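From the methods appendix. Each design record in this collection lists the tokenized structure first, followed by the designed amino acid sequence. Records were kept in a plain field format so they could be parsed without special tools. The example shown here is representative of the layout used throughout.

RECORD:
FOLD TOKENS (182 positions):
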């Protein structure tokens, strides 16, 4: 029998934690987001998307390591700081300068990369909700984590629109009969 067969696993500084612990839900969602972003990096048309996605995946690894420790003494140094928030904001401004986001709901799937980006965005939003709950229940070690995920989901949406625009594929609007308006 393997140790994990009993439904228990470890954090950096805690042993025998139930796998259903909220912290593992958060870590799992962040891991899923990074994996979805890996699909983007493998298939994006734009080199700048690939570079930016890799930087974000590295940030997510830092973020997961921060959240995988319960106590301050075992927690690695915080990497998700005000500078990383500014990085996301400046990248959002750069990406959206050339690509209008529009005011209509877009159905994912016009390109492989944008579909993977939309999947990653949805997973990031789930992770953000779970991190917010973790903050309420246990407190977060880093006040920038929720803001980082919030900005990241907006950036990932903008990247999806940019990938569609770069491919020349028109975006599929959710409600074309209403001219796409919400």
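DESIGN:
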């Amino acid at each position: 029998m393997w140790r994990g067969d009993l439904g228990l696993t470890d954090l950096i500084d805690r042993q025998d934690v139930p796998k259903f612990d909220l912290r593992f839900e958060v870590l799992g969602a962040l891991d899923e987001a990074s994996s979805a972003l890996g699909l983007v990096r493998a298939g994006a048309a734009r080199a700048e998307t690939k570079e930016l996605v890799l930087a974000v995946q590295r940030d997510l690894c830092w973020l997961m390591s921060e959240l995988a420790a319960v106590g301050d003494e075992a927690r690695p140094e915080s990497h998700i700081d005000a500078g990383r928030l500014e990085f996301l904001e400046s990248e959002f401004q750069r990406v959206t300068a050339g690509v209008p986001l529009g005011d209509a709901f877009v159905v994912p799937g016009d390109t492989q990369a944008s579909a993977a980006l939309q999947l990653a965005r949805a997973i990031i939003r789930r992770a953000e909700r779970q991190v917010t709950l973790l903050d309420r229940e246990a407190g977060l070690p880093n006040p920038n984590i929720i803001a980082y995920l919030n900005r990241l989901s907006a950036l990932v949406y903008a990247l999806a629109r940019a990938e569609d625009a770069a491919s020349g594929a028109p975006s599929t609007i959710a409600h074309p009969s209403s001219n796409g308006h919400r």
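APPENDIX NOTE: DSSP finds five helices and two strands in the chain.
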